[in-house]
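Nitrate ABC transporter permease
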Amino acid sequence: MRRLVTFFALPVALLAIWWVASAGSTDFYQPPLSKILGVFPETWFGPRMVDDVLPSLLRLAVGFALSLVIGVAAGVVIGTNRVLRDLTEPVLEFLRAIPPPALVPVFILIAGIDNLMKVLVIVSGCVWPVLLNTVAGVRAADEVLADTCRAYRITGTLRLRHFVLRSASPQIMAGARQALSVGLILMVISELKAASQGLGFTVRQFQTGFQIPEMWSGVLLLGIIGVVLSVLFRLVERRVLGWYHGATHDGVRS
């Protein structure tokens, strides 16, 4: 309960500051928070939830899942093979340096403006934190445990599951958390250009139509989605890395 209160304390405090600071505002472009909250339910708790919000979240989920699969698989292969790591490092550094928004026109040419393009944009940014953290986690595996696996002839899938992935899992989860934040940003960016639906598209439509309170309500919704995703990820992380946190806690106590 204390962790939950601590987690939500700052967002609630920021909303309170926003409410007080914007109260009585007559600026057309910076309406009071009370007005934004007033239009929030009718704007998002209706057809737009099904037509715009849910499709955006589905694309984010697909892009994030693909990034995990590609990043972990490639990271394990590269991390366990020194020659391959040396060969691919320049290429990976080159590709990682390309900002994903710059690839939007390329993906439009390749995949059109449908869901595939938006998923590709998300994957192009999310895959790197997962891949690089997986490589780092695999390389940092305990040498004593590696020697033990060799001594007991633990190889193949058994070694991959119980030694390689388990040793790298804290780093993999750290990369996945970064990827989730990047994915939410790229979800919006992919919908700002050449889109006909989605949360980012709708916010842009509100902006061009000078529906300013509705636009701000979309920004607020994105913040809420970010907080909810962070909470859900923490719950999954706690379950997946329960053994790791337990070992760390025992080590600190001893």
